[in-house]
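Colleagues,

For the teaching module next term, I've prepared a clean inverse folding example: a structure given as tokens, and then the sequence designed for it. I'd like students to try predicting residues themselves before seeing the answer, so please don't circulate the second half yet.
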């Protein structure tokens, strides 16, 4: 196995494994079910497949950036978005604090956009691969905002 293949594998496993591990320790449960939610709230079954696909994309983009642009702002922003992404569930579901989670997801949105801007010149493919992630995080931000406002 080449170093390049190993790098991709490590990034995908860390991201794809980390997200569900954090999610499994911060299950929505009865508290979340009791919250008032907006009409655009998707059914619960949607979240796992969407996040699984996005986590693979995030891992691929991280590996691409690590291999070619390790010391750049884009790489720092990639790590920042991952930390913010992984921090959201414990805040929202674990601490049951949608307001703090909203602050984190706004930071995540900024980090994703920042990554896309920072990587645009050096690796347009990586930047464009984050488009679905940006769309989902923007949607999740709107959902988080609505939950804060309704509760």
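(Answer key — instructors only)
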């Amino acid at each position: 196995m080449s170093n390049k293949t190993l790098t991709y594998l490590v990034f995908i496993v860390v991201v794809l494994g980390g997200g569900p591990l954090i999610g499994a320790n911060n299950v929505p449960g009865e508290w979340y079910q009791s919250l008032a939610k907006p009409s655009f709230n998707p059914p619960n079954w949607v979240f796992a497949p969407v996040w699984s696909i996005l986590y693979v994309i995030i891992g691929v983009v991280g590996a691409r950036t690590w291999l070619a642009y390790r010391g750049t702002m884009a790489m720092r922003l990639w790590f920042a978005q991952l930390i913010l992404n992984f921090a959201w569930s414990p805040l929202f579901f674990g601490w049951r604090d949608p307001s703090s989670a909203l602050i984190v997801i706004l930071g995540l949105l900024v980090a994703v956009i920042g990554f896309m801007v920072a990587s645009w010149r050096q690796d347009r493919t990586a930047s464009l691969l984050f488009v679905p992630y940006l769309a989902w995080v923007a949607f999740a931000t709107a959902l988080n905002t609505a939950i804060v406002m309704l509760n």
